[in-house]
Structure formats: C-alpha cells, structure tokens
Amino acid sequence: MPYTARIAIIGAGPSGLALAALLQAQSIHPTIYDLRAEPTPAFFAAPCGMLDLHEDSGLKIIRAAGLWDAFQAELGGCSEECRVLSPAAETLHTDQGQLSSRPEIARNALTKLLLGAVTPGSVKWGHKVSSVHSARTETGATEVTLDLGADGKATYDFVVGADGAWSRVRAMLTDIVPVYTGAQYVNATLRDATAKFPQLVDLVGSGTTMALGGGRGIMTHRGPQDSIRLYIAVKTPLENWAEEIGIAGKTTAEAKEVLLGEGGGFEKWAPELRELLSTACDEETSDHPGTVVDVLPLYMLPAGSRWETQVGATLVGDAAHLMTPWGGEGVNQALLDSLELSNVVGGVGQVESVVEWQEKLEAPMKGFEEAMVVRAKEVAEQSSKNGEMMLGEHGGQAIADIFKMFADIAANGGEFPEGLL
Fold this sequence. Notes:
This is FAD-binding domain-containing protein. Keywords: FAD, Flavoprotein, Monooxygenase, Oxidoreductase, Signal. By secondary structure, the chain is α/β, with parallel strands linked by helices. It has 2 domains: 7-78 and 103-178 and 301-390, FAD/NAD(P)-binding domain; 179-299, 2-Layer Sandwich (D-Amino Acid Oxidase, Chain A, domain 2). The chain has helices at 14-24, 41-45, 58-64, 68-73, 107-116, 168-173, 193-196, 198-204, 241-245, 252-260, 271-287, 318-321, 329-346, 354-390, 395-411; strands at residues 7-10, 31-34, 50-52, 82-85, 91-95, 104-106, 123-125, 131-136, 142-147, 153-156, 158-161, 179-190, 208-213, 216-223, 227-235, 294-300, 313-315. Strands 5-4-13-14-15-12-16 form a 7-stranded mixed sheet. Helix 13 packs antiparallel against helix 14 (354-390). The longest helix has 37 residues, at 354-390.
C-alpha cells in the first residue's frame, strides 16, 4: 500500500487552517494543534480586529478553498471607506473605497470560515506544544517529536510551524527571534456605536479612519456588533513603555487618564479625538471589568530571515516572517504561504515509504522556502517604511499624499505601486 505521511500543523490561525483545508481537499489529512480552547459561538460573534484581504494573496486562497460565496456573506461590518485626519481632527483625505479592492472581514469570522472548511475533529484544541525536536531514525527517515506537556508526546514525518511570533517550530530550525520595532499599540473597543455614540460614528465613518501625527496615532475599524475598534499607536524606543509610563496592570479606563493627561501622548489632540479615545477606553473596561489594558509592543523578524531547510519541518505566516501591521500584509502573506505549501506537499504523490516521501519533498520544499523568504522580505521592508511614515512627525499628511497619488494614478488608468498601504 502507498505510504501516508504523518503531518502536523502547529497553530489554528488563518495560515494553519487554510493549509489544512487545502491539504484535505487533496486527501491529505494533517493533525492541527492549538493551545487555545475551542472557539464558542460567542467568540465568533465578538468584536475583534478586521483584516483586509488582497487580490493577489489572501483572496486567492479564499477562492482556492471554495469559500468565495461564504466569504461574501461575512462582509459588511466594515466598509472600504477611508479617512485620514490630523491630530487637530482636520480631514486630510477621504474616499468611499474607490481606491481599494480589499474587502474587510473580522478576524474571528475568517477563523470561523476556514475552520468550517476543515474536517471536524482535525484540530486538537487546548494542546500546548512546549518544544519540538527532530531525529534521524534507523531507516534514514527524519522523525519530529512534539512535547505536549501533560498530553504526552506525538511524532510526525513533517511538522508545519504556523504558531506565530514566538514559534516553537522556528526555535528548532533557527535561533533567529523577533526584534522590537519601536512602536506599541493600546487596543480598545466600543460596541453599539450608532445607538450610543452617534457623534463618534460621524467622526470615524463606516470603514477605516487614521488620525496621525507627532509619532502618535488613533486608528479605527468598524466591526461586528456595530463596534468601533481602536488601535492607539505610540512610537517609543522603550520596549517596556507600558511600565515606564505607569499603565501596565491598569484597566483600560485607568490607562486613558495617563494617555490623555498632562504630558500624555494625546494631551493636546482635538477634543473629538480625545473623546473617541476616552469613550473607547471606558467602554472596554465597562465590558470587561477588572481586565488589564491590552498593550501590544510590535515585533518583527529581521526581513529576509532564512533557516537551513530541514526535511521534517517548515514555517508559514508569522512564524516564518513576522512583520509590522502597517499595510495589512501579514495575514495575506500567511495565506499565500499556505497555498504554495499545499501545492508542494500535494505534489509529492504516491510513495512506498516515509524515506521516499521525505526525499521527494526536499527539493520542492527548499524552493518553496527560498521563494517565500524573497517574497516576504520585500513586503516586510515596505511595511516597515509604511510604519515610519505613519508614525512620523507629519504622518497624516504623508499618508494623505499617498492616497492623492493613488487617485491621480487611478484617474490616468495606471497601476498602483506594490506594497504601499
């Protein structure tokens, strides 16, 4: 009988689930491990971050997985409208989405969509992979062992690290680790915005708004439950910034007093933008009493990071090329990784042994990794440049100028440059 390779995917995020769905469509059935509890209907319905999927990457996977119609049904929480404001709340740019063809979907909705395309029972929820090791067997095959703590150990012929920024699989392949980028996010969400805060809906609109300047930013997306999701961005060389300014361990409502108070980064911003920040922080604490403020230092892997190809394991998504969020490329590159890797694994065909399977996989795997690194390097570098512009002294105007360039290009029938926003 033909040999069936034992494959594990670590991480049930978009890239891990997409890879599983695409492999299962080729009658290849991996096991997926994720440390989180199985998502509930309440989880899927909750407000969360929004993701814009791009035609040449994320949307290709939606189509390849046969999810296009289901994907369309999940849209609508956030339009493609875009506004750019100054810290004084001056409108620097606005459009109704005519400069974009990147539909927005809630992260939780995308997870639900991809999970629905995976065979039930494929994901082992609540399983933490604490370490990954490989060894050569007496037959000459490479065997990869997962240490699952209280759940014991499991061995596989091939393991894919879709396990994010601090990947355990990457730690087996290389000693490269993420580096701090000099920026931080504070996250907050307010729900039922239209009924409760119509003046804030008028301010941010139905899509995305970016208020930028002086190394600071308030960026918003509309989302599920008529929500407004805030990303309060701060440029700072201090990796321990939250501790230094005294918001670590505080509630979001308490943290806003520091951000808006004397010497705070948003002390002199326009009253309507201060109201937006204040209201979202208060609502976040009202919805989650006692929960500490969600502060996210932004990290990235050095652009172009490479590891020596090993026949028993590889990486996709943030595990392979963690990048900054300035431009929305992270999830799109991750999904494209999964499409390309599924073609490589599916192309091995029928074999008689694990040794033969791994031998046939090695050269295509090396090619996949090399191409992925080159592709992601260019995107990661542009993403970093976008961030430098957005958190520059005149970030709002810099971004508005780019949108003006886009409008001029569109008016003259040209093509947009790759990677910008």
